[in-house]
Amino acid sequence: MKAMVCTSLGKPLELQDLPLPKPSNDGVVLRVEVCGVCHSDLFHARGHIKGTNTPFIPGHEIVGTIYEMGPDVQGFSVGERVIVYPVFTCGICKECVSGLEHLCDKWYPIGWKIEGRGIDGGFAEYVHVPNFRNILKVEGLNPEEVAPLACAGLTALHALYEAQVHPDDLLVLIGVGGLGHMALQLAKNLMNVTVVAVDIDEKKLSLASKLGADYVINSLKEDPVAFVRKVSGRGADAVIDFVNNSETSKIAFQMLGRGGRHVFVGVYGGVLSIPTAFMVGGSFRLIGSFMGTRRHLMELISLYKRGIVKPMVSSKFKLEEANEAFNKLERGEIEGRSILKP
Fold first, then answer.
1. pLDDT of 1-52, one tens digit each?
2. What does the pLDDT average to over 316-321?
3. CATH superfamily of this structure's domain 2-151+292-341
4. Strands, DSSP E only, in the chain?
5. Where are the domains of the chain?
6. Is the pTM of this model over 0.85?
7. Cα-based distances in Å from 286 to 53, 67, 290, 293
């Protein structure tokens, strides 16, 4: 099979011919139809995430058809279209059995390798999913639109639940890219909150307006903190930061009204310095939000079927064009989501 492999951090991916994977007893081999291109794929390949190991095949937003199954797989058939839940866990710890498997201490990802953990992902013609419990049926659905649900949608929905927003709340979304545009749709169509979208790209802000944002702010041209305080009279009830560098996290915290929730999602990296006494008086809550659960992914598939959320796929690339996809993503030229089609 052909695959795009990260052999050295910071270097272009290499197109290689590799042996076709064989399924484990509980696993399946998928013929990849679509794989989304995520910032976390880029950051790992560029060496921005501490502990990343090579070689690995990126890609964790995977939709494919079952090519071969292990003998212990139940409830699936060869040829069925499925989506991969990208967080693999032990299945027996307190977090796993209580439905919070994304918080399992023994979790490992698909699509990158970090500190010796992880398996190869979907930037390939075929991918091995070692446990059939990590696949969900999406037969009859558009694979190009469904694939981004596995991370962009999953992470966005979980972050909104962590933000604990209500219809009378003012919610600020910082970054209206692959995740932010999904969160915007869910916030408006599912939770009916007032949304302020903040970005530095006019095209992405235009997309935010089309998707129903109540206000859009270009933070290069206008002070978003002053704007939010003027609109709300007290500050935001919640801010979700899909960028999460030192500058955006500072802005996010300054936007909060008393009792406000600051949800950290992006992995750009940075530091936030906060006066501890100020935390007490404001009764602020700082919340880290990582991916989501299999139940969240099931919910997203249902929401997609009902037209509540629809990933905006703006760019499509062939497998061998993965480096071009990474370069465009790095330059901020992708609106919504981009995908690879082997």
1. 999 999 999 999 999 999 999 999 999 999 999 999 998 999 999 988 888 9
2. 97
3. Medium-chain alcohol dehydrogenases, catalytic domain (3.90.180.10)
4. 2-5, 14-17, 28-37, 61-69, 81-84, 87-88, 108-109, 126-129, 135-137, 170-174, 194-199, 215-218, 236-241, 256-264, 285-288, 313-318, 337-341
5. 2-151+292-341, 153-288
6. yes
7. 30, 44, 13, 20
